[in-house]
Amino acid sequence: MNSEEKNQRKIRSFVLRKGRLTKGQQRAMELHFPRLGLEFKKELYDFKAIFEREAPVVLEIGFGMGKSFAEQARDQRDHDFIGIEVHNPGVGACLVLAEEYELENIRVINHDAVEVIEHCIPDHSLDRIQIFFPDPWHKKRHHKRRIVQTEFCQKLHKKLKPGGVLHLATDWENYAEHMLEVLQPMPEFKNLSETDDYVPRPESRPLTKFEVRGQNLGHGVWDLMFSAK
Ligand SMILES: C[S@@+](CC[C@H](N)C(=O)[O-])C[C@H]1O[C@@H](n2cnc3c(N)ncnc32)[C@H](O)[C@@H]1O
């Protein structure tokens, strides 16, 4: 790693909140993490060996409390889902849902996604990468902390199979514009929007309560889908 990369690595897209796990989350961690969790190590994962089958692999970055992640895995059992989240109560909450939905097609990683992408994901191994409602970092001086940046998207592109899709969604218009400014000029990606900007919410992204409430209040949500050339 050169010194420029080292400097950039210090800018993180998250602030690690100290959150305590509820009893239910703790229980789900103890019970299910050994089977449904993946430890971060500086070595490549072998998805075929991990899931004991060959199926399309979807990677979600920053799944929060895991609601839409777990619902997708429940509704698309013929796909395998890798979810990354730094906030460990979120990982616990996701495993509570995994138990409720009897999921076997997920693996969760409690670590910084930037490092996981860097060290653990084999090139051209993913069918879809999704980042839903990433932290918007509202203040201009914090925009550098937004996870969607050219260099990061170049790394994501390398992890997608040719034709694989990067799907982003945000409810913050300024971040939607930023996402478009980053991705539109990248020669590695093709915008799947018919209007060359945003796409209607695809059925694969479950609508959250938060989103319904926002829609009722007249707030917008922007989905972007780009395929890897
Ligand atoms: C605003 S929340 C959205 C959560 C979820 N996608 C949703 O729609 O409800 C963004 C999440 O991304 C996580 N996050 C931010 N940067 C991350 C990173 N580098 N690696 C893993 N998780 C990250 C945060 O901890 C937070 O839970």
Describe the SSE topology.
Blueprint: H1 3-10, H2 23-36, H3 47-51, E1 57-61, H4 67-75, E2 80-84, H5 88-100, E3 106-109, H6 113-119, E4 126-132, H7 150-159, E5 160-170, H8 173-183, E6 189-191, H9 209-216, E7 222-228
Parallel strand pairs: 1-2, 1-4, 2-3, 4-5
Antiparallel strand pairs: 5-7, 6-7
This protein binds S-adenosylmethionine.
Give the % helix. Answer: 25-40%
The count of β-strands is: 7
Integer-rounded radius of gyration: 17 Å
Sheet with most strands: 7 strands, mixed
Strand content: 15-25%
The bound ligands are: S-adenosylmethionine
- SSE order, as H and E? HHHEHEHEHEHEHEHE
What strand line-up does the widest sheet have? 3-2-1-4-5-7-6
Which structural class is indicated by helix and strand composition?
A: alpha/beta
Q: What is the average of the pLDDT values?
A: 94
Tally of contiguous helical segments: 9
Low-confidence runs of at least 5 consecutive residues: none
Descriptive notes:
With 229 residues, this protein is of the alpha/beta class. The protein contains 9 helices and 7 strands, in the order H-H-H-E-H-E-H-E-H-E-H-E-H-E-H-E. It starts with a helix and ends with a strand. It binds S-adenosylmethionine. S-adenosylmethionine binds next to helix 6.
